[in-house]
Amino acid sequence: MRELDVARVADAVAKLAIDACNYLGDDIVAFFEKAIDREQSDTGRDVLAQLLENANLAKDTHRPLCQDTGLAVVFLEVGQDVHLVGGSLEDAVNAGVSKGYTEGYLRKSAVADPIGARKNTGDNTPAMLHTRIVPGDKVRIIVATKGGGAENMSALGMLKPSQGRQGAVDFIVDTVSKAGPNPCPPIIVGVGLGGTFEKAAYMAKHALLREVGSTNPEPRLAELEDELEKRCNDLGIGPAGLGGTVSVIDVFIEELPAHIASMPVAVNIQCHSARHKEVVL
Amino acid sequence: MDRKVTTPLTDEVVATLHAGDRLLITGIVYTGRDAAHKRLVDLIDKGEPLPIDIKGQIIYFVGPTPPKPGEAIGSAGPTTSGRMDAYSPKLTALGLKGMIGKGSRNDAVKEALKRDKAVYLGATGGAGALLSQRIVSAKVVAYDDLGPEAIRELEVKDFPVVVINDMYGGDLYIEGRKKYERKGDS
Questions:
Q1: Most exposed: A2, A110, A257, B83, by fewest CB within 10 Å?
Q2: DSSP 3-state of A129
Q3: Are B130 and A57 in contact (CB under 8 A)?
Q4: Which of A91, A112, A146 is the last residue of a domain?
Q5: Which among B90, B102, B100 has a CA at the least distance from the CA of B32?
Q6: How is domain B3-180 classified at the CATH fold level?
Q7: Residues A195, A267: one domain?
Q8: How do residues A223-255 score in pLDDT, each as one tens digit?
Q9: Are residues A88 and A128 in the same domain?
């Protein structure tokens, strides 16, 4: 059985956190470049140009794209034929977050006792960790640094099955509409349909990892994504919410069967600074 | 054309600002976000003096990343302003003339802007690396224990903002969106 020292996981998490915060994905940069031509508002085009300049500056000077370097959301896909050695896997992930946020000059935004003292934990731990066991002998690590502004505008609805497709569409578009300028548009809309309360929220978050411009392999969902994208862009929110035609970067949906009594719909909103990096060990 | 404005702001200057105007701000602005606002308003409620004189000043809602050695400040873009809605009217009542942030303000803040002749300005959220280049110097002047949420005195040069809410009730978020909203199947 293949052995993997968890210290390698810690080092990888630290590097991924720093890289995610400083280097915007090529898919988002390409989106900005195309969106400038498409945006009808002058102010909106100026905002998109600022975002491109910001991405280039962050890359060239190795500094965070945004001061909100988020909570560290970590997705681990652990091959079932890997034997992890050298300590606890979860401790290693947290050690990686601590190292990355400290050595990378990232902002520590985690506070303990959230409805009371709200005391900073000092090193941005704990990671928001999601672990899956998968076939194989590799470990895939994805670090998504998730800012608070967009997260705050997210929503989960336990809708009635009678509300159907139209009810789901209205709930999603309404969530984006209410969010307006707050989550730093243009946004990515992650949607989780079905499952249980927590699975719907997880799917909405996981959906945000998809590559911008990619098509959902399920034609029924691909069509729904296109419809939602158009409905959201028609809201007129625009870049930075100053009014315009480019409000949404993309809509990504994940789906699971639901209980006969339930129709959960989760909407996780991602700001334009959509930061995630991954590595396979 | 972007208009240059220097701080502190006077009533006369505020009166010339309208929703949608693009400004380049030069001078001193103070930082403050959730925790610092709570402390300031606690002092006001107790009738005690504030650690900074906010008369004519601008507060920038920002919690920067730590500076690297040799830098004035780390990345420093705006945070969501709505969380300061509960506090802002008490500060404009004491003479605060401007706020820089991103995202919508509530009706109480918009009324306070009219009552106290003040403005709410938007900087581009998520452009923290770029905006940090317009900050010449930074020093903590209160609440050091709050870390990124401490009150800092920033010296800014040509800091780019757009007027979101003016003292006449103008609201760029509402007006801008209305202009580009498409209803039904267009």
A1: A257
A2: strand
A3: yes
A4: A146
A5: B100
A6: fumarase (3.20.130)
A7: yes
A8: 999 999 999 999 999 999 999 999 999 999 999
A9: yes
